[in-house]
Amino acid sequence: MNTKSILLCCFIVFFQFLNTVQSQSAYQVGLLPGLNLNNKFKKGWSLNTKIESRQLLQRGVFKTSIDRRNQYVLTDLSFITAKKVGLNSRIAGGYLMRFEDGDIQHRFIQQFIVVQRKSGYRLAHRFFTDQTFSIVEDPQFRLRYRLTTEIPLNGESVDPKEFYIKMNNEYVNSLQSSAYDLEVRLIPLLGYDISESLKIETGLDYRVNSFIRNNTRHSFWMSLNLFLEID
Amino acid sequence: MKTTIKTIPFYLLFLISIVFSINLQAQEKYERESRIKQKDVPTEALRFFDSISNINKIKWYKEEGFNKISFEAKFKLNRTKYSVEFDSLGNIEDIEIEVDLDDLKTQLKDTISTQLNRNCNSHKITKLQIQYTGNKADLWHQLKHQAINPNTIVHYELIVKCRQSKDVNLFEYLFSEIGKIVSVSKIVFKNSSHLEY
Predict the structure, then answer these.
(1) pTM for the complete prediction?
(2) Cβ neighbour number for residue B100 with a 10 Å cutoff
(3) How far is A212 from B193, CA to CA, in rounded Å?
């Protein structure tokens, strides 16, 4: 089961990559480091604090121009409060600040999460809405769904000192100035459970958008995430 | 706000050092289960299956706790899930068979349901296993011939989703053969914030 899943993930990523390089689409490549702190409180409450940055290493159009200038893009800082509402579900809301080009964007977040524990793997469904406001751009409204699969590489669940595969697949519907767009994200990650309270993950964060307007843009971010749990 | 490529590694190093310094202060719970190869299983445990020919594929697991190491063999037999547990030397401890609630006798089901209704405002049984304990020969005979041996002791292990006042949790209940509660333990879930955010 594990080997099959990994092979399937590799196949999907490889197939998508082949499609990408054969078309005349814009792309960008960069780094996406992030730190995620999760504080647990009484009665099922928790607070998640996340800081994430983007550093652009390269951009261009496939088979034509390449711009290899390194460039800092943005930093996100978010605070999300969550409440357990069922055995496997949590409802959450929060606020994100995006620091980009000297301006600050304000994003309000609402999400509902269900985590399913299966035999040999875990699935998480995330239903997400957000509203973004800034001085320089029109408000943006998004409706998102993400499916996350966690597959342990040893045993039936991920234990300390063990590796795991995590696969995110997200569909982001956005509406801005009456223009609709769909972004699809596919994020295969290799994780390591350092201890009960600390995990590290790295992998490719692949995003494709604007394809419904025939102006496809691909983003390849090298992701590095740290998750710290504070009880 | 301007950050250059040169500042990013320092920023990352700073974050990593904070994370690791906090982690060193945290108390670690040591309990793990891992898949192992057949060559790492005690010979005594392997021998238990020697002359039981109708089992096709056995998956072996090692469970390590603070004071105990055990080995578990998981397999399917006639479309039913089996789990056989051994101690660190390979001596058999129990056989567990996954069944449906409807496989239990009505009277036993009612007794168990009454007990659960007392403990929970509402409940749902998500998994049920019949657990057989006894001496090696009796357990071996039972597994080989797929027939209940009267010398083995029967327990019922239930995983129950239980709602109590405003909270809902998962519990592992162990019931005796006549439906009396032997033990109850709350199942603590592993962290899932890396799947949620």
Answers:
(1) 0.78
(2) 8
(3) 33
Q: In this predicted structure, what is the pLDDT of residue B30?
A: 43
Overall average pLDDT of the A96-119 stretch: 94
Q: Cα(B75)–Cα(B94) distance, rounded to whole angstroms?
A: 14
Distance from CA of A155 to the nearest CA of B (A): 4
Shortest CA distance from B162: residue in chain A: A87
**Interface A-B: count of C-beta contacts within 8 A:** 118
Distance of CA A187 to the CA centre of its chain: 7
Q: Which of A1, A112, A159, A221 to probe by mutation at the B interface, max B CB count within 10 Å?
A: A159
Residue B98 β-bridge partners: B129
A160 at the B interface (CB within 8 A)?
yes
CA-to-CA distance for B98 and A195, rounded, in angstroms?
31
In this structure, the dihedral spanned by the alpha carbons of residues B29, B30, B34 and B39, taken in order and rounded to 10 degrees, is: 180
B190 near A CB under 8 A: yes
Regions of chain B short of the pLDDT cut 50? 1-3, 19-30
Q: What is the pLDDT of residues B49-82, one digit of tens each?
A: 987 877 888 999 998 876 789 999 999 988 899 9
CB contact under 8 A, A115 and B26: no
Residue type, B17: S
Domains of chain B, start order: 29-97 (3.10.450.360), 99-138+147-197 (3.10.450.40)
First and final CA of chain B: distance in angstroms? Answer: 26
Which whole-number Å values give the CA distances from B140 to A38, A191, B98, B137, B160, in the listed order? Answer: 48, 41, 18, 5, 30
